[in-house]
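Hello, quick one for you while I still have it in my head. Could you read through the record and tell me how the tokens relate to the sequence? No rush at all, and the record is pasted right below.
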Amino acid sequence: MIKKKEIGTVVTIKNELKKVMIIGYSDDNYIGVLFPLGYINSEQNVIFSESDIIDIYSLGYKEG
């Protein structure tokens, strides 16, 4: 099982020119928003999988 990236992690993904920040999870996918714009509406959310991640720019919040 692949460990999920933390909420707030900023990544680049395939087929998207802008950075994306992870805001949630749906099944085996991530839900993200364009960074630094943030949440606009649900139609602007970006859905992607672990295999779509090209690079990690910043790690999100990690408790502990």
About this structure: Residues 28 and 62 are 20 Å apart (CA to CA). DSSP finds no helices and five strands in the chain. The radius of gyration is 11 Å. The beta strands are 10-13, 20-26, 29-34, 46-49, 53-58.
